[in-house]
Amino acid sequence: MTTKNDNDQDLENKKKEVQEEFKGFFTAIKTFLSDLLNIREETDKELTITKIKAGIAVKSHNAWVLIFSIFIASIGLNVSSTAVVIGAMLVSPLMGPILGLGLSIGINDIDTLRRSLINLGVMVGLSITTSFLFFSIPLFQDATPEIIARTAPDVRDVLIALAGGLALIIALSRRTEMTNTIAGIAIATALMPPLCTAGYGLATWNFKYFGGAMFLFLINAIFIALATFAVVKFLRFPVVKYINQAKRKRIAQLVAFVATIIIGFSIFQFYLLFQQNQYKLNAEHFISELQEKTGAGIINTTVDYDKKSIKIVVLGTNIDETQKKIWSNKMDEFNIPKTSLIIQQDDKTSLLQDEINTIKNSYVKNQNLIASKDEIILQKEALIIEKDHELQQLYKKQIPFLQLSQEARIIYTGIDKLNYASKLETNFSSIDTIAVFEVKWNDSIKNTKQLNSKFKNWLQTRLNNTTIELK
């Protein structure tokens, strides 16, 4: 017989078993996720450092590859061909010095840092010079959509550069190089198009384009270097050691100072771009709400983040001063404070709209009139076809008496006279027209009854009419 203490002991044992099972389950999940996301395995640190350092230098073939790839990218931007621009990015060696910059800061290598900065400057100079020479030709100075798209950075460009840099350094640090990944990252981060656009800005004396494109390139380059620095530190790449302790300390402080500036600048620029992007989204929401509530015909909008202004061009229904004041006060509700609302409209636009509506109504009336005339014409054409059919039927019923009499005289030589008339007959439900013939034979012919029957048959066959009567 079991006691209460035995039951309690069994219950405790079952609880411990359940706890052990849960502990084993969570341990298995933890092990799975660790194996899945662990990037320290398969990492070849020495080979990665060697590959990055080898790609820093700009000389001989690297320089010419860069020049030709910039030339191809400039052509692609000029003709708005995304495929050509992608092809140019695949062969561009621009990533080398940027990766070297992030690596050198991560391992305290002042010599590599100096080489990276010098070669990055050389690459930027070569790129801008090449694109400047290309776009200096007047034939190629149109501001295409592909060029305009590279004149200002966006917060999404920062995220792309950061994610691309992380993926690139992780791919490079593998023992087996992931070529497809590296090529894809070269396309995604898009370092070349901003440099080509900067050369276009110089060639056309458009310094706004030049400044915006260089800022976009700088943002991309900094966040790729920052991602490289972060992964190098996470993977614990070996730090360069110097024999002179004082020099080592000084270099470490210098590198730490440069890294702090880069990280601080990156965070600050990300914050500014985020604020600018949020401001534009709020402004677009505000404009959409204003148009919906007031019924204004807004045909153009300009949102200026730097000057904190929203300019809208109205055609048609105007926005009066009372409405303008109300919507200016509503800007705080849309998180766009201290912003001036500029409305460009003409007092005559309402009259113009009335004229447009009058012309539109007149056009609609004319179209309706043309449609009704077309319908009348179709009805008349149908009536003409019907009457023509009736006329054809009437023609078929007519007897060609002259021709018929001549044929009868040839076939029946004993005919002296032939008469023809139409007789109307009715049964009080319909009316029929019956052809009546009267024939007179020569006195020398005796058997006229037989001839009459034969002649009647001939008439019915000749005229295709079985209702013919013969007297």
TrEMBL record:
Top-level taxon of origin: Bacteria
Membrane-traversing stretches: 61-79, 85-105, 117-138, 158-174, 181-203, 209-232, 253-274
Entry keywords, A to Z: Membrane, Transmembrane, Transmembrane helix
InterPro entries attached to this UniProt entry: DUF389
Official protein name in the record: Hydrophobic protein (TIGR00271 family)
Organism listed in the record: Wenyingzhuangia heitensis
Lineage: Bacteria, Pseudomonadati, Bacteroidota, Flavobacteriia, Flavobacteriales
